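Q: Got a minute? One more chain.
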Amino acid sequence: MPRLLLPARLAACLLMLATFLTVVRPADAAVPDRKGWVLWNQTTATTIGTGTWPAGSTVVVLAPGRYQVKLPGQGAPNGVVHVTAINNAPHWCQAENWFQSGPDEIINIRCYRVGGALDPTSFSAFFVRASGGPAPGPYGYVDSAASGALVSQYNSTGAANTSTPTGVGQWLVKFPGLVAGGTLDGSLQATAVNAATGARCKVSGWSSSASGQAVKVLCFNSAGALLNTRFALTYQYKVSLYGAAIPPKYYGYFLNQPPAGPPSTNLNSVLGLGANTIMATGPGLAMVTFPRIAFTQNTVQVTAYGANSNFCGLQTFWTNSTVGPDLYVRNVNCFTTAGAPVATGFTVSANSIL
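A: Always. Here it is, folded:
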């Protein structure tokens, strides 16, 4: 090759690279763009490193039962938040709001005890903002106002999600194009968003079809009455709760109806469908084992499932065993509105940064 052609070819390659970097901006091309989670230990007033990402994430107590989470470097508009209370006694947590502050993401959280009073508790909180795509698997979320108007949304096929009120405290959310192959596939997480009063949301049922996912969401006030409120809902199938696949290599989800849902609602990213297990360990208590995915930093989220006002959380922090390594959720704990332990449906999702 003549030497005089090399500079020209090099210049052409550099121009193509510059064009690619201009068109494919990180904020527009990644699923997700931003993500983060924290595991808060109320007893020691510290975050737990194995359940917190990125490093340096903080929690500030604003008032008894109110917290502000900062995820450094993960600031982005919109997105969704999920939060799960961790307490031996019946508690739930909800999002108050979230927003970008410079390079960081700020999440305000409210946690309640039975009866509707704000109350301190440990919790696991999660944030993601996605754009671009497609995702490596059917994936989507909505941040829905009580009216059904979408504050933000994501659908890995590029289709437009919808949220339609069907009664007080009831919505039908559709994720068109998120086709998984069966009649009930994947997993869901739902979280109430309310800055004024105690609120909790759950999935009362959903169906998978050739047109996508149709999800029924119910939300309640502290007394167990249906409540119109804003809520966040995320759908995942063969993909992590934050919409990525490799990484992470290690994630899983499980539906307890009860008993366990079909294999297509029980995924382990290492072992495949049907590999995770559940065992009743007491009134309203269930241990869920996710084999071979216990790699930190990881997060676990729980949502109650069924057409009643029961709610669920975590009894204590999950365990990352060195054997397997297996992740043990011991236990998911579920309660009636009055705070009595109850065996009821739930979905649980475990996700690693690796």
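A: The mean pLDDT is 92.
Q: Perfect, thanks.
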